[in-house]
């Protein structure tokens, strides 16, 4: 299958062959891809979002390798197991192996996390290349205080044994900066993972903008203020509060002003 035109008709029966629960996750994950395209967080065809398939099988959904984020819909997502075996691929395009390595590592080790989102944005990579990483210089960044893990760059993620180090570095956190590479957030739902990614991307945007001021000295809030915000952020950082749903519903309203194809 080589053309986008032909992709539009490959998956008319996907909804009929999956459970309602899986279809709901597919729609949300496809929306996350389209929103990332809307916010220009894409790196052509080279990054990936995934979500666990509800049910007893260790399966997750990820993008077909070759589709742009604004071409992803609920039907053309690829279903794969933790061993890398493709369970269902309506497009025939397969998946990005580096994406499989990263996402299978987290889905295999962290059953509390349902979705994993990874980006290669300019400002995200720029922060990942800074020795001190994410700086507590904005409200957005301070909200992640104490919650960010770091993983050292090992090259393109094609080695299966890197999964052990990814998981070890992530620990019990759900936000990670991949050194010289990009950003990664996970969550108890697609909505939660996306909210975290949006906040982290914004924090990186602000940091790079602030550092662009040349010799202007940055202001760092006092430690007690950072600790206060860290405590305040706990009410939404676990993804269980009503704020996640409100945030997501607003995102969907924004997306659907111009794009409803993601639901197909």
From TrEMBL:
One of its GO terms (cellular component) is cytoskeleton. SMART domains: Aldolase_II. Transmembrane segments: none annotated. One of its GO terms (biological process) is monosaccharide metabolic process. InterPro entries: Aldolase-II_Adducin_sf (IPR051017), Aldolase_II/adducin_N (IPR001303), Aldolase_II/adducin_N_sf (IPR036409). Residues 27-208 form the Class II aldolase/adducin N-terminal domain. One of its GO terms (molecular function) is actin filament binding. It holds the Pfam family Aldolase_II. Belongs to the aldolase class II family. This is Class II aldolase/adducin N-terminal domain-containing protein. It comes from Pseudomonas salomonii.
């Amino acid at each position: 299958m080589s053309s986008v035109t032909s992709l539009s008709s490959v998956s008319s029966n996907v909804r009929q062959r999956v459970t309602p629960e899986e279809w709901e996750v597919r729609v949300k994950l496809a929306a996350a891809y389209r929103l990332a395209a809307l916010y220009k967080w894409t790196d052509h065809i080279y990054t990936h979002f995934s979500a666990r398939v509800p049910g007893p099988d260790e399966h997750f959904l990820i993008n077909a390798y070759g589709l742009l984020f604004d071409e992803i819909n609920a039907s053309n997502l690829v279903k794969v197991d933790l061993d890398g075996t493709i369970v269902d691929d309506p497009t025939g395009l397969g998946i990005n192996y580096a994406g499989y390595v990263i996402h299978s590592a987290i889905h295999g080790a962290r059953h509390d996390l349902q979705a994993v989102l990874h980006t290669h944005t300019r400002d995200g990579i720029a922060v990942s290349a800074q020795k001190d990483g994410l700086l507590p210089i904005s409200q957005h960044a301070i909200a992640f205080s104490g919650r960010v893990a770091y993983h050292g760059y090992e090259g393109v993620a094609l080695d299966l044994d890197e999964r052990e180090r990814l998981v070890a570095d992530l620990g019990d956190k759900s936000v990670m900066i991949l050194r010289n590479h990009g950003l990664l957030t996970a969550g108890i739902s697609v909505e939660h993972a996306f909210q975290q990614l949006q906040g982290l991307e914004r924090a990186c945007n602000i940091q790079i903008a602030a550092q662009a001021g040349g010799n202007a000295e940055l202001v760092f809030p006092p430690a007690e203020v950072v600790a206060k915000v860290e405590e305040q952020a706990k009410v939404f950082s676990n993804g269980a509060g009503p704020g996640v749903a409100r945030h997501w519903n607003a995102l969907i309203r924004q997306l659907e002003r111009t794009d409803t194809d993601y639901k197909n």
